[in-house]
């Protein structure tokens, strides 16, 4: 479990500055792979002029103007940048090994005292290590109060890591059938090289993610859903792709990103243009590299 610099950037676009007295639950103690100076610089620069309240919270934390340690940032210190109070940040884990405040196995049904307790829930790499995924998701939906947001940042192409990797359709099919609305769903594509990943990454829409970016790049899925009604009884959902087909709609999830849709059409045109030369290995490799570099939106994090 951990938060990279690019994860911090992506989370900021969802949380911004949390309302006063917001309660946050993190699944596991999150290791932050950056120090306070680097994340403050990145967030302050990224949102300057667009989210003044959020930038003000960074300054209030004193990170703009005081000497900071070069060591890694604590996860509560990190979330305080978003306006959360340290006393309202709670960690849940299956045991007390890392000092979690709530000890609970998410494979098991929810203890009632935790129902409707949190405004934000962050899963930074726990769900893939839980065997009973439906039960775990049901628990999370009940932890969250109406109006609250559940955020997942989970692996897509990480072999030998957890029980499973994830797709956007998995979360969408579950949450939309259990009283939630989609806030954000996209792929986070970053270089395997840590220094390169700290410099920039891409947010890639589902429509543009057609195959894995390995070995040079790794991919995670960012999925955020907002609770809009009281938790409904659990019912295993049908896959949304096929429900849309049965209802006479497009198999693909709707996208409002016309710019990225245009890019996808341009790439398909280019692919058809060079298809007679696909038996030449160099052409295929060139297309693959061009595809990787042009998909989604690139965000520069550090100079």
Compute the separation of the termini in Å: 26 Å
The major sheet is characterized as: 9 strands, mixed
Overall average pLDDT: 83
| Count of extended strands | 11
| CATH class category | Alpha Beta
| Overall tally of structural domains | 1
Superfamily (CATH H level) name? Vaccinia Virus protein VP39
Which ranges are low-confidence, i.e. pLDDT below 50, for 5 or more consecutive residues?
Answer: 64-69
CA radius of gyration:
20 Å
**DSSP summary: helix tally:** 10
Structure classification: alpha/beta
Q: Please estimate the helix content.
A: 25-40%
Q: If classified by CATH, what would the architecture be?
A: 3-Layer(aba) Sandwich
Strand content: 15-25%
Shape verdict: globular
Summarize the structure.
With about 300 residues, the chain is α/β, with parallel strands linked by helices.
List descriptors.
303 residues, nine-stranded mixed β-sheet, 10 helices, 33% helix, globular
Walk me through this protein's architecture.
The protein is of the alpha/beta class and 303 residues long. It has a single domain, classed as Vaccinia Virus protein VP39 (Rossmann fold). It is built from ten helices and eleven strands. A nine-stranded mixed β-sheet has the order 5-4-2-6-7-10-8-9-11, with helices on both faces. It has a two-stranded parallel sheet with strand order 1-3. Helix 5 (133-143) links the parallel strand 6 and strand 7. Helix 2 (36-47) runs antiparallel to helix 3. The chain is globular, with a radius of gyration of 20 Å. The two termini are 26 Å apart.
């Amino acid at each position: 479990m951990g938060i990279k610099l690019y994860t911090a950037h992506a989370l900021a676009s969802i949380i911004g500055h949390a309302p006063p007295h917001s309660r946050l639950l993190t699944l596991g103690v999150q290791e932050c792979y950056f120090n306070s100076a680097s994340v403050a610089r990145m967030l302050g620069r990224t949102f300057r002029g667009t989210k003044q309240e959020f930038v003000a919270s960074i300054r209030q934390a004193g990170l703009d103007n005081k000497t900071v340690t070069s060591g890694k940032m604590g996860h509560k210190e990190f979330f305080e940048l978003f306006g959360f109070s340290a006393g309202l940040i709670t960690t849940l884990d299956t045991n007390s090994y890392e000092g979690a405040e709530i000890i609970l196995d998410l494979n098991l049904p929810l203890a009632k005292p935790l129902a409707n307790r949190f405004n934000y829930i962050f899963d930074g790499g726990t769900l893939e290590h839980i065997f009973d995924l439906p039960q775990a998701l049901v628990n999370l939906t009940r932890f969250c109060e109406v109006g609250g947001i559940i955020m997942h940042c989970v692996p897509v192409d990480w072999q030998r890591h957890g029980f499973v990797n994830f797709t956007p359709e998995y979360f969408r099919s579950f949450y939309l059938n259990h009283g939630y609305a989609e806030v954000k769903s996209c792929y986070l594509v970053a270089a395997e090289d840590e220094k390169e990943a700290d410099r920039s990454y891409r947010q890639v829409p589902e429509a543009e993610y057609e195959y894995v970016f390995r070995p040079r790049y790794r991919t995670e899925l960012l999925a955020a859903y907002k609770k809009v009604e009281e938790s409904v009884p659990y019912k295993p959902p049908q896959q949304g792709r096929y429900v849309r087909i049965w209802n006479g709609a497009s198999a693909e999830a709707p996208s409002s990103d016309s710019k990225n849709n245009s890019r996808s059409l341009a790439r398909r045109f280019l692919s058809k243009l060079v298809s007679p030369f696909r038996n030449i290995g160099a052409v295929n490799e060139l297309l693959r590299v061009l595809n990787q570099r042009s998909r989604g939106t690139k965000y520069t994090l550090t100079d």
